[in-house]
Design brief:
10 helices; binds zinc ion; 2 domains; Nucleotidyltransferase, domain 5; binds 5'-O-[(R)-(carboxyoxy)(hydroxy)phosphoryl]adenosine; alpha/beta; 18% strand
């Protein structure tokens, strides 16, 4: 490995139900990358924290071993250990953090704690070197919905966030309601492609034409009202005995409402910041309809960055990339660092604009 550019970063991600490890070289090339998705959670209609933690514990050694084998490096050759320290499921996070702490201690190499959502921010840059700030970022995952103005790496101005459910959570809850399974996002998207979105016009919560930039609701999101509207629609269709023939139309109507709200608020941010470069990240950015809508609203004047499906969903390559950024800034973790289920995004400030 003498010709490989340094530092070699080993990233580890165990915040939810993917056990993932990646080795990134100094030029941001992914040398090895394994993403192991846990199964069994779908029976319960969502991730069961205790099962997730146990599965990480069982798989983490194997996942790292295979990643190092792909990268053709040994653990001793790793220069930096980067790991998701939060936010996420605490038991699951602790597995990855404890593993990385032990490895960093044993190899006498620095440990870098990464915020999961900062990882998602870095994901598109692994495939497209132009995906650099400044940009407006829409971060949409199973646990978060954030609209930020990334002025530069590490300097993020919060524009809006969800007041209740995250966007991915809304997809998961609606999928459960429609009896589709877990995770709901890809299942809703597939079903929606067979339906007619205009058949049922669902509400666009917190989106009204008369909102002004200094109203808190201008950028904020709310998805629980949309979910309730789907509950009521499903109940009515069930009573009429037509739910099974209408289910694709319901999925399409829901997806359209969610996409409309996400895209509209993002375009408000583009208008206010005068920054027509948009990055969409997090699991929901795997949704083609969302990316197509953002691209079409941005038009030829704007630029949209999003990762491939593999790197949009939880993965360790993005964690290694964010760890590299933090390492370069000297943000090395102390050995007594703990995981945090609700960690704040470093560099995130309330917007004054
Ligand atoms: O970022 P992620 O992999 O994990 C978290 O950090 O939460 O995001 C997972 C979320 C789930 O809620 C899942 O349903 C959603 O992303 N998702 C999608 C799609 N693929 C995954 N939502 C809509 N459309 C998709 N194609
Ligand atoms: Zn995620």
């Amino acid at each position: 490995m003498s010709n490989t550019s340094r530092p070699l970063v080993l990233g580890l991600e165990t915040s939810c139900d993917e056990t993932s490890a990646a080795v990134l070289d100094g030029g941001n090339t992914i040398l090895g990358h394994v993403i192991l998705s846990q199964d069994g959670h779908e029976v319960f209609g969502g991730v069961v924290p205790e099962l997730a933690a146990r599965a990480h514990l069982q798989k983490v050694d194997l996942v790292v071993e295979e990643t190092l084998r792909q990268a053709e490096v040994s653990l001793r050759e790793i220069d930096v250990f980067g790991v998701t320290a939060g936010p996420g499921l605490i038991g699951a996070l602790l597995v990855g953090l404890s593993w990385s702490k032990a490895a960093s201690f044993a190899c006498d190499r620095p440990l870098v704690a990464v915020h999961h959502m900062e990882g998602h921010l870095f994901s598109p840059s692994l495939e497209n070197s132009a995906a650099q700030p400044p940009f407006v970022a829409l971060l949409v995952s199973g646990g978060h919905t954030l609209l930020v103005h990334a002025v530069k790496w590490g300097e993020y101005r919060l524009l809006g966030e969800t007041r209740d459910d995250a966007a991915g959570e809304a997809f998961d809850k609606v999928a459960k309601l429609l009896g589709l399974g877990y995770p709901g996002g890809p299942l809703i998207e597939r079903l929606a492609s067979e339906g007619k979105a205009s058949r049922y016009k669902l509400p666009r919560p917190m989106l009204r034409g008369n909102q002004k930039p200094d109203d808190a609701e201008f950028y904020d999101f709310s998805f629980s009202g949309l979910k309730t509207a789907v509950v009521e629609l499903v109940r009515r269709l069930e009573l009429d005995g037509v739910l099974s023939s209408e289910i694709a139309n319901v999925a399409a109507g829901f997806q359209e409402a969610a996409v409309d709200v996400l895209a509209s608020k993002t375009m408000r941010a583009v208008g206010q910041t005068k920054c027509a470069r948009v990055l969409v990240g997090g699991g929901v950015s795997a949704n083609r309809r969302l990316c197509d809508e953002l691209a079409s609203r941005l038009g030829t004047e704007g630029e949209l960055f999003h990762a491939s499906t593999r790197l949009s969903l939880d993965n360790a390559a993005m964690i290694a990339r964010a760890a590299r950024f933090r390492y370069d800034r000297g943000d090395v973790a102390e050995p007594d660092i703990s995981a945090s289920a609700t960690m704040a995004l470093p560099g995130l400030e309330q917007s004054v604009a």
